[in-house]
Amino acid sequence: MSCSINLKELGYKNSTKDVFNSVTLNVSHEEKVAIIGANGSGKSSLLKIIAGLITPTSGGVFLFHDEMKSLKDFRKYRCDIGYLPQDVSDHFLCPTVIEDVMFALRAKGKSKDDAYKKSYEMLQSLGIVHLENRNIYDLSGGEQKIVALAGILITEPKILLLDEPTNALDEDAEQKIIDILNSIKKSMIIVSHHKTFIEKLAPTVYKLNKDGLNRL
Ligand SMILES: Nc1ncnc2c1ncn2[C@@H]1O[C@H](COP(=O)(O)OP(=O)(O)OP(=O)(O)O)[C@@H](O)[C@H]1O
């Protein structure tokens, strides 16, 4: 099956330490993969590398079989990658929930009415329609996480990179996210410490350690 993401022998060293070496991973079209690992093992760094936000020290990143030799090469795939960071508090561009979710659609040229309708439906499907006109910065961490996810899913990216999507969520919200993500046929890499969440979502689980990924 055709691969959306190939990582070949990736190594990453930041200003303080050698984080990991030899990370090799192939994620097929529509495949869901989870990555677990100890605190500080480099899971968030790995997602940032795949999202084209930081550069690996060695090895190669291929998106849709196209090698990303520098951060510039990611530009043509920017709209195909939906990246949910672990901390979403700085992620928002608009004050209210509905405006923020509509933002990417408006930027893509959708009319205000179309963008509103689609965004409202997204809030409904995620169970947060009651937050529509709330100021994002008055929301709880869990509520902000779902709003950030809405803003990503609305753009229908081909690849989803989700860093701890359910931390700070209650059981109902977590189940909603599981149902939504299960219904989406995209390539996904999900970083999580949450065992039951992973079991319900990703058939393939890897553990990241200093020497690479081990399939569990
Ligand atoms: N900007 C930075 N500068 C220096 N060191 C950093 C930076 N960001 C992360 N680190 C360090 O790099 C290592 C990997 O961090 P990373 O956030 O990728 O780990 P993680 O596996 O996602 O951790 P967690 O499970 O706690 O979220 C950690 O030791 C962290 O302290």
TrEMBL record:
Pfam families: ABC_tran. GO terms for molecular function: ATP binding; ATP hydrolysis activity; ATPase-coupled transmembrane transporter activity. Signal peptide: none annotated. GO terms for cellular component: ATP-binding cassette (ABC) transporter complex. The keyword Cytoplasm does not apply. SMART domains: AAA. InterPro entries: AAA+_ATPase, ABC_transporter-like_ATP-bd, ABC_transpr_CbiO/EcfA_su, ECF_ABC_transporter_ATP-bd, P-loop_NTPase. Residues 5-216 form the ABC transporter domain. Transmembrane segments: none annotated. SUPFAM superfamilies: P-loop containing nucleoside triphosphate hydrolases. This is Cobalt ABC transporter ATP-binding protein. It comes from Halarcobacter ebronensis. The lineage of its organism: Bacteria, Pseudomonadati, Campylobacterota, Epsilonproteobacteria, Campylobacterales.
